[in-house]
Amino acid sequence: MSIDIIDIDPHFYFILTGDMKCSDANIGPGSLNTFRMKFFFTEINDKIRIKITGKWKSNVQLGYMKDEEEHQLIFENKKAYSTYDAFLKMEKIATGIPHTDIEYVKADNL
Q1: Which residues of 31-65 are buried (b: 16+ CB within 10 A; e: fewer)?
Q2: Which candidate in 33, 60, 68, 76 could, as Cys together with 22 as Cys, close a disulfide (CB 3.0–4.6 Å)?
Q3: Confidence of residue 24 (pLDDT cuts 50, 70, 90)
Q4: What are phi and psi for residue 4, nearest 5 degrees?
Q5: Over the stretch 44-60, which tens digit does the pLDDT of each residue have?
Q6: Terminal CA-to-CA distance of the chain, rounded, Å?
Q7: In DSSP terms, which residues pair with 34 in a beta bridge?
Q8: Taking a C-beta distance cutoff of 8 angstroms, is the pair 58, 26 a contact?
């Protein structure tokens, strides 16, 4: 899926992707919003557990400054938000990894 990797832990505990564009139903594909994902790898009972989290930022120009604050990527069931599209992209990547089961956990429980 042409994902840019910007950081890999030397012991392969995590992989961090570069920023990817969000699509925004209101703005369209020209939206400046971006998101990135972090993959965490742990071994439990001879199995590999992969946790994937995401952060997004609006990249909106605020006068002379650019908003660079990152927010936790959570599922928002509103197609009008670019985070909806970003979450679906993150989910597509996660389900593309060979797996036996998938568990969805709220961000405050990570």
Answers
A1: bbbbbbbebeeeeeeeeeeeebbbbbbbeeeeeee
A2: 33
A3: low
A4: -80, 130
A5: 888 888 888 888 887 66
A6: 26
A7: 21, 57
A8: no
Predicted pLDDT of residue 75: 79
Long-range CB contacts (within 8 A, 24+) of 38-45:
38/14, 39/14, 39/15, 40/13, 40/14, 41/12, 41/13, 41/14, 41/15, 42/13
Question: In this structure, what DSSP letter does residue 6 have?
Answer: E
Greater pLDDT, 75 or 17: 17
What DSSP element (H or E) covers 105?
Answer: none
Burial class (CB in 10 A: 0-12, 13-18, 19+), 94: middle
State both tokens at 61.
């120009």
DSSP 12-54: SSEEEE--EEPPBTTTBTT---EEEEEEEEEEETTEEEEEEEE
